Amino acid sequence: MQVSNLLTEGVNLMFLGMGSVFVFLTVLVLAMSAVAYLVRTLFKDDSREIVSPQLVIPQTETEGGELIAVIAAAINRYRAK
């Protein structure tokens, strides 16, 4: 066989493989979308609780300072060994 024939066969095989993977992934995405749609429609849950957002308490300067002091003490103790 000549090199051009081998290259042509290689390119054909490459497109066949890539095409089959693309078709498989497309079918997989469509199937998952269909299942998600069925689950949403069959198991519709309207009894959701309305939850108010929690109040976020900002960290004060003293808490950060205490944490830094504890970390610094741990590093000093580790280095002293």
Characterise the protein shown here.
The chain has 81 residues and is an all-alpha fold. The chain has a domain at 1-45. Helices cover 74% and strands 0% of the residues. The radius of gyration is 31 Å and the shape is flat. The mean pLDDT is 86.
Rounded mean pLDDT is: 86
User: Approximately how much helix is present in the residues?
Assistant: over 70%
- Percent of residues in beta strands: under 5%
The helix-and-strand class reads mainly alpha
User: How many strands, which pairing sense, and closed or not: the largest β-sheet?
Assistant: none
Count of alpha/pi helices: 2
Element order: H for helix, E for strand? HH
**Low-pLDDT ranges:** none
Radius of gyration: 31 Å
How many E strands?
A: 0
Measure the end-to-end span: 73 Å
Q: State the assembly state of the protein chains.
A: single chain
The general outline is: flat
Condensed summary:
This protein is 74% helix and 0% strand. It has two helices and no strands.
